[in-house]
Amino acid sequence: MSSGVCWAAGACLELGTVRKYNKTIIVAPVGTTTENGTLLLNTLNGISGNNNENPFLLKLEPGIYDIGTTPLTMKEFVHIEGSGEGASIIVGNINTTDSGVIIGADDTELRFVSIQNLGGAPEGSNTHSIGIYCNGTSPRITHVTVWAKNGDRHCYAVNALLGAAPLLTNVSLNAIDADEESIGLYVQSASSAPTMRNSEIFVSGGSNNRGIYVESSASAYLDDVEITAVGTSSHGVLFKTDGEVEAINCKFDAAYAVLVTSTAGTGGTLKVDSSIIIGTSNGVRNDNGANTTFYVGASRIEGSNSSSNITCVGAYDENYAPLDATCQ
Question: pTM of the full predicted structure?
Answer without folding.
Answer: 0.93
